[in-house]
Amino acid sequence: MYEMHFAVPMAGAVLNGINTRLDPKTIAIVLRHSETKALFVDYKYMPLAREALRLLMDEVKGSMAAKSSIPLVVVIDDVDSPTGVRLGDYSLEYEQLIYKGDRKFVPDEIEDEWDPIALNYTSGTTSAPKGVVYSHRGAYLSTLSLILGWEMGSEPVYLWTLPMFHCNGWTFTWGVAARGGTNVCIRNTTAHEIYSNIALHKVTHMCCAPIIFNILLEAKPQERREITTPVEILTGGAPPPPMLLEKIEQLGFHVVHAYGLTEATGPALVCEWQAKWNQLSRPEQAKLKARQGVSILTLGDVDIKDLATMESVPHDGKTMGEIVLRGSSIMKGYLKDENATSKAFHKGWFVTGDMGVIHPDGYIEIKDRSKDVIISGGENISSVELESVLYKHPSVLEAAVVAMPHPRWGESPCAFITLKEDSPDHHAVVVTEANIIAHCRKNLAGFMVPKKVVFMDGLPKTSTGKIQKFQLRALAKTLEFTVRETSNQSNREEQDQFRDQHHEQIMASSRL
Amino acid sequence: MYEMHFAVPMAGAVLNGINTRLDPKTIAIVLRHSETKALFVDYKYMPLAREALRLLMDEVKGSMAAKSSIPLVVVIDDVDSPTGVRLGDYSLEYEQLIYKGDRKFVPDEIEDEWDPIALNYTSGTTSAPKGVVYSHRGAYLSTLSLILGWEMGSEPVYLWTLPMFHCNGWTFTWGVAARGGTNVCIRNTTAHEIYSNIALHKVTHMCCAPIIFNILLEAKPQERREITTPVEILTGGAPPPPMLLEKIEQLGFHVVHAYGLTEATGPALVCEWQAKWNQLSRPEQAKLKARQGVSILTLGDVDIKDLATMESVPHDGKTMGEIVLRGSSIMKGYLKDENATSKAFHKGWFVTGDMGVIHPDGYIEIKDRSKDVIISGGENISSVELESVLYKHPSVLEAAVVAMPHPRWGESPCAFITLKEDSPDHHAVVVTEANIIAHCRKNLAGFMVPKKVVFMDGLPKTSTGKIQKFQLRALAKTLEFTVRETSNQSNREEQDQFRDQHHEQIMASSRL
């Protein structure tokens, strides 16, 4: 995958890193929609590719374009695990292909820097995956931005815990090369593999979603290795709760927090650290660090606006508005989807769908996904703020808050929680809904306290590790009545049913 | 000047940082050629500006455009030295102007990134100054490149020893802002001011020509301050001799060597350091560091070519060719000079006029200015290589080698040397031409040994500190005969005469 990041553009083609956690049906849709000409498959994903190709063939069967719709397949055998398995009559092995290469090949020269370099399908939490198109110019500027924003120096040793199919590894596929660095690739993002590779290769940098923090923190003693020199972590996705940030830094990791999305070629804001903040207390530092920060250097503009008036919000840290972006590293658009593309932009700005505030120092803090804001009795409740309070509870491993319909207030917050397996501090204490609500009452205004707390064995997540709030919202919708009209028992049953469904999904995808 | 780097582009205008060491006549030419609309003058340069404006007025007198050719003048009084002196009826004081400013002013938005942002007149060692035009795009990419190439981290404390009128401070005017840094400006680049400001402000970065190394090394004990944390120096201009590099690093400076020219918006190559080189001996390190290096990240391409065939030279560290550049940060062209512009480019490449080699590791090393190569009996002699040997002599402060006509070999090398005032190691030794020639014979092939050595009290330099080889070449031309046909005495006289002329020039400009 790393080599493809250079070979494909040099061949004048467009790279489409496919999320390996997708189901075969979605992959078949992606292959067809993107008109894939060549498919490179790691031996580990052969069953997944075989099934996706079968579905693709079924779909195009009988159509005129049947044959041309089936891509050339190149199988990548690993050094330690050659399979010898090939897909179809014309499939090649990767090293074979390279062996056949023309050493005198002259790389394609880009005539227009706005030409596409990569396609990245969104994970499609709510709808069919959309193909986000990156230009050479956008990817290039984003790459420079992130080296700059993260202050990644020369010759980094970069550990790939972030998948390369995720916004081209937030462009660090190209960035590590630009810095003359070393790429450390691992097959499984387990605590053991992460810790032992950090120790073995003297890793200096890694990007990850906050889920990796949990993996690192929950590691068993025998899986851990001492971190002797600080490992720089760039994290994105959900704002990491201050408590989590603090704990991970105590292990020897140094966290920089970024915010972005596929449509912005990865991170668009970085929480640039200021030296004077080093004098603050650790919790104060963690609070500052949990903010999304300032625009990366090469992005044209970031602002928070009232979409109705397109007025910028005041820099007061209070007034919420929609985060909007513009600049070269914003996607060209969604492939073959003019409708979705034009919806994504408003008066020249890309609308992120995230709600935030601007602090007096110009730093942006996300308050919520616009669709995740809970509007209770006319008051906006930030689910992120509420979740950050929940994470402060010593027994809480994961927390997500969504809106639950409420006959009087319209909506009210409902919290979904996974408890730690053995909370060292609260060994004998059984944590109840009442405990959690009491904890919230101590730390939040009354109207923000969840009206309902649901315990789960694990929250539903996308293949990229994001909590799927739309699933929780679906469940929460059924809860209003159960809270009021049914016993705890039936409530429990619904939860079990949900959990089973969710489990089945996980099993379905891990089988492939 | 720093504020102008932001205010002028935000006003939609073009910035022209004028070299304050130029004579009034040249400044008048620059003002007229650039059609300057507003002239900002530091109080220190009032006499210079007054004289330049007088010459400009004389020149345009009687022409239709007379009045519009005279710019608005804004005088900048320093806090400690307000003069109250104004130029002309309409001149303003800078703070007055700011006071009159409109707080609601909306900065100009660039419609085309190729629009000019700055004009930088070359110092014109050989001809009338040429106005090099930078685009917004070029300046922007160059700024990012140099932050990246130098690995300048967040919140640098930057000491301005490099004048801002020199390629806009190699774009660090903008770069320091992009990094949220602090600018330390000094009026005089004396050892005392440099050392004391480094100590006072905890300077982390500075750019300078190698001439500053001499200032730092020759400082008297009472002028020095201990360098407690390393100061990063980015240096350009002449390749610094390894000995000099070594000495300056022993003082606590860490040197990165870059190569560039006005037409490339400053540095275009940076000698990127490789961690494995840290294991080499200091002299080996200094040798590697004296190379010009690899292309900055945002430059399209750097190559060394045979201009006749446009073939690239092999990466053998031996085959010399012309260094050529292309990419967005190359100038748009020379203002109102299509002829010079088209001469500067060859088949899409900007021709630097510098000769170099490419080493097997891809690093470029300059061997000479193409016009400085000495061709002796058909052999190319690199004046830079010869100078680097001369600098190894313990008594040599400055050295420059040029071609001297030779009846048999066509050309032969002639060395111009300034000796140190008191060489600690060689207190009682009088250094003679024979000493220098013997030193060269020990270290160089016979044909490369200078046929003539001329001692001077100081080598002639441009206002930006570059040694003016064209002056030395003019002198060397007269030497062939004196060597062969006249006594040492008359040779000495010619040198004295030259020195006097040169001194007068220096005095003429320092009087202003």
TrEMBL record, chains A, B:
Keywords: Ligase, Phenylpropanoid metabolism. The keyword Ligase applies. Pathway: Phytoalexin biosynthesis; 3,4',5-trihydroxystilbene biosynthesis; 3,4',5-trihydroxystilbene from trans-4-coumarate: step 1/2. Residues 485-512 are annotated as: Disordered. It holds the Pfam family AMP-binding_C. Residues 491-505 have a biased composition (Basic and acidic residues). GO terms for molecular function: ligase activity. Residues 1-335 form the AMP-dependent synthetase/ligase domain. Residues 385-466 form the AMP-binding enzyme C-terminal domain. GO terms for biological process: phenylpropanoid metabolic process. Belongs to the ATP-dependent AMP-binding enzyme family. This is Uncharacterized protein. It comes from Camellia sinensis var. sinensis (China tea).
